[in-house]
Amino acid sequence: MQETKPDCFYQRNPKGIMSSAVPRSGFVVFCVILVLTLALYPVLKTLGFQIHSAITGSFVAGYHSVLLVNCPTEQTARDIGRSIMEKRLAACVNIFPRTTTMYYWKGDIRDATEILLLVRTRTSLVQRLVAYIKAVHPYDIPEIISFPIDDGSQHYLKWMDDAVTDI
């Protein structure tokens, strides 16, 4: 008696292999285009905002942001603010004197006097600013909060664009 092996071990139809290669290559091309689109989305989005703003002369909500950063002393706030400005990561930094802060730290409620930085920049630079501030800030977990600017003076927002470098 002759033993028969399942068809999955033997290719009896070599044409089937070639005909399935075309759909597979189309699927691979689709996947590559999808991955490239997703990877380039932030760049394409920013470019689209810039083109729209340049053509229409209008403001695009969310293109600029404000960051709040608390510092333990005025000197720390000045040092961080100055270095942010020197690196051209922000158009403007305000230093507000003496704010009273209450917060939880390691299970206890703490009171402190802090200095508040108000930083205005492009939204595209927020993550770079956060990384830089975390690297130079003396706190273990510095308070860095960002808010998008939804509207404002067109002249001021244009000045912000000119003051902050494109990185």
Topology of this protein?
Elements: H1 14-56, E1 64-71, H2 74-86, E2 92-105, E3 108-122, H3 126-136, E4 144-148, H4 154-163
Antiparallel strand pairs: 1-3, 1-4, 2-3
Concise description?
Belongs to the CutA family. Pfam families: CutA1. The chain is an alpha+beta fold and 167 residues long.
Order of helices and strands: HEHEEHEH
Tally of DSSP helical segments: 4
Largest sheet at a glance?
A: 4 strands, antiparallel
Tell me which CATH architecture of the largest domain applies here.
2-Layer Sandwich
Radius of gyration: 27 Å
- Number of DSSP-assigned strands: 4
CATH class of the largest domain: Alpha Beta
- Level of helix content? 40-55%
Indicate how many domains the architecture comprises. Answer: 2
- Termini separation comes to 76 Å
From the 3D structure, determine the CATH topology of the largest domain: Alpha-Beta Plaits
Low-confidence blocks of residues: none
Strand content: 25-35%
Mean pLDDT: 84
Spatial strand order of the main sheet: 2-3-1-4
Shape verdict: globular
Structural class: alpha+beta
